[in-house]
Prior knowledge:
Elements: E1 47-50, E2 64-70, E3 75-82, E4 93-101, E5 104-109, E6 112-119, E7 122-127, E8 148-152, E9 167-173, E10 176-184, E11 189-196, E12 205-209, E13 212-219, E14 228-234, E15 242-250, E16 254-258, E17 278-282, E18 285-291, E19 306-315, E20 320-330
Amino acid sequence: MIKLKVILVTTAFGIVALSGCKNTVQKNGKDKFENQTVKEINASIYGDYVSDCYANRDEGYDWVAVSIKPAGENKISLSVRSRADKKNPTCTFDAIFYKQNDNLYQTLIDGKEVLLTIQNQSIKLNTKEASDSGILSFYCSGGASLAGLYTKIDGELDRSQIDKTLFSKFLELQGIAFRISSVQNDSCRMLSIAPLGLELDNRVENVAIDGRVIDAEIEDLNSDGSPEVLIYTCSDGSGSYGDVVAYSVNNKKSMSRIYFEPVAQNTKIKPGYMGHDEFALVERSLVQRFPIYKAGDSNANPTGGIRQIEYKLEDGEACRRFVVKQISEYK
Length: 331
């Protein structure tokens, strides 16, 4: 018997805000990448945090876990999962938090400021304004809320009880929605993109991916009245090579895959490339950036600065594709 439902944490950055069914991505354009001061993140915050009832899980209590992983400069990847062996998960959420200072991370959800506070071996989630606290119940069932205190544990979570979903997010724009999720199959990791609201074809697209999903965004990149959805992935291992899986909606009737050329195949941008990519939508462009490695650089210490690439969505002969429009380098 489930005796208690407590819940947990989520999402992004003061300038970039993510929501859910109401998941309209709010952004303040260029601030995603430009004029950022690098704020080094203390690696001690990475790991798993749990609600109080985790200690009583063998007695049937419900519990929630928060997993924090690195996601690039100034940000962390945060995954929320709950018990799923005896009931449907109480809460499922994935997003990016952006660092404000050593103890504070921030996001906007539907225009409401949400704070993630680091407290020694615990994390706390709450809204800046008490009157906005209801937004933290949106991602939970049974009257639970994301708000609360979660304590770090040593070792691995109880994998026999926790929800096996690796990533989950719901995005909506212009009357079209996408439910994005990834799971681990026996042989590979699968990414699923399930559209909702298309007039002719709402078939789910399943794509095998190398590594894990970092985040997903939605925008009308070509201003045709129908959205594009982009999912950013990162390979496992020290290289952390990034990729983009993207789909474009065709006049709100169906969707088609967008081609994204791997860096290794583009001679203009690949010199010095060894992964560690970051991606973001900035206004109506896809922006990618990564460190530049010089000969002799170790994987952990690139010395060539940063390369940033701006892509525009264009129609191709067989499909839409991302085309390089601008390449910038800076120290």
